[in-house]
Amino acid sequence: MKFLVSVPASTANLGSGFDALGMALGMYDDVEVASAADGHLSITVDGAGSGDVPLDETHLVVRAVRATGYTGGLALRCRNTIPHARGLGSSAAAIVAGVAAGFTLTGRELDTDALQIAAEFEGHADNAAASLFGGVVVAWSEGECYRAVRMDPDARVRPVVLIPSQESSTKTTRGLLPAEVPHADAAHAAGRAALAVHALTSDPSVLLAATEDRLHQDYREPAWPDTVRVINDLRKLGVPACVSGAGPTVIAFGDLPPEVDVHGFDVRRLDVDKAGVRVRPLD
Length: 283
Prior knowledge:
By secondary structure, this protein is of the alpha+beta class. The chain has nine helices and eleven strands. The strands form two sheets. Strands 1, 2, 3, 4, 5, 6 and 11 form a seven-stranded mixed beta sheet that branches. Strands 8-9-7-10 form a four-stranded antiparallel beta sheet, covered by helices on one side.
């Protein structure tokens, strides 16, 4: 059995929807998967992470495959274009690729168990759900059960990502967040997150207000001050902008004013991926 898994990048939070909102982006990691005899494991990695990620059972794709119950041999060839540790869901993409591969190897269709398995790796489902289902997602948990709903993005939603060379650890930036926030900030987040769902799916004209955050971005500024500077400069000029996931990538919507200094950022306009993870057979 041989097949190709293609999985999109993702952005999470989208400003106000901390750990709840996600969106799939048209940037992809591809994993060629083949079953192998006698439990043999082989992994090659090209692109992002090459030379850095492990090439054994601790590789994230392999760990996700094993989590689905597949214990047989594997031959993986990973071609990665999603930058690592930039807030574009590279780890979620690897996990989703592994889950999709494991389900295919065991003859199962992707279902709600796939999201559960993927989300358990990270402890939240926003990035994983976006990479699994595509489009815009709202994710939540009920006890230890992870859930998500998918929605189609409005055709006028035009994301631009600004990717710095600096890496950022989700674990580190989460450590900068306070244990409690003021009630007013929590209420603000609830209203703006609800507005963000409307903005992303029906009316992008209100994205500037919808992406305003009080829960996480300012607390994390010490980790990536240039990111926050660019976001503030864009927002002052009316461009909706926020941190992508745990940063330090900026995601914005619309055209970038030339007066905003984006030196040091790799600027890319991306489509919103609407399909999520794809699996197709190879000869």
